Amino acid sequence: MEICLPRFSRSAALSLCVALFLAALTCALPLASAQDWAKTLLNKSPRHQEWVKVTHGSRTIDAFIVYPEVSHKAPVVLLIHEIFGLSDWARSMADDIAAMGYIVIAPDLLSGFGPNSGGTAAFADQQAAMKAVSGLDPASVTADLNAAADYALKLPAANGKLAVIGFCWGGGKSFLFATQRRDLTAAFVFYGSPPPVDALKSITAPVYGFYGGNDARITSTVPDTKTAMAGASKTYDPVIYDNAGHGFMRAGEDPSNTNPANTTARTEAMERLESLLKGM
User: How many other C-beta atoms can be found within 10 angstroms of the C-beta atom of residue 42?
Assistant: First the structure.
């Protein structure tokens, strides 16, 4: 029996091969770093979100802003992303803080450093973004953060108060930013490394730390930091969450999380953060 097969033009056959290849590739890609759940949370938010261009000198950075639904002017919170860049989760975290009643600005510190002069979204994968963040010039980071903070403070809806919050790599940068910015009301450090001891004397705002019990690489720095901050007569209030790992704020709401302590730590840290922010 003769079986008749459809005839394809060369272009159609090529298109079919490409489609099959992409489908196979998609199935083979790991989904561990996907943050579709964070995108879903952002899409469900009732708050106003927008992207803005922040310019200082010859440099322009993209920044994500979320406004709270309030009837009065609100404090500004400068959010510094993880080593992964301004991810969907970082923007979702900005939205969570805005829900507490604050204007949140989250600059993409990879702006202009990605392929084709793009930012975080332009990098091929998470490893590439991590490498780029690790290679950022500290002076450029500080200038970008100051520009983003100044931009947000000038918004008509802002009341002039400023806090900084950072996670992972951004946690270390938030601690360092506290040594460089005199008008800060508070600094929130989520599992970030401390700045050099000599820089601590320049801090003018209270610093609140959030650390994972199973994150010795970072949490082991807490005792010496407490001693150094006390010696400099500065306020430093760290809390260590038992059995939580590094990045528990993100992992604690990730559907793929397998450590219940991360979820508990995130819940408790969010409650503490909201209470401390109200103190502003």
Answer: 19
pLDDT band at 35 (very low <50, low <70, confident <90, very high): confident
What would the pLDDT profile of 201-253 be if each residue is shown by its tens digit? 999 999 999 999 999 999 999 999 999 999 999 999 999 999 999 999 999 99
CA atoms within 13 A on the CB side of 102: 28
Q: What is the pLDDT at residue 123?
A: 96
Question: How high is the mean pLDDT of the chain?
Answer: 90
Token pair belonging to 109: 């510190």
Helix 88-98 with 36-44: angle, nearest 10 deg = 30
Contacts 24+ apart (CB under 8 A), 240-245: 240/211, 240/212, 240/213, 241/210, 241/211, 241/212, 241/213, 241/265, 241/268, 241/269, 242/213, 243/213, 243/214, 244/212, 244/213, 244/214, 244/215, 245/212, 245/214, 245/215
User: DSSP E strands: which ranges in the chain?
Assistant: 49-56, 59-66, 74-80, 103-107, 158-167, 184-190, 207-212, 236-241
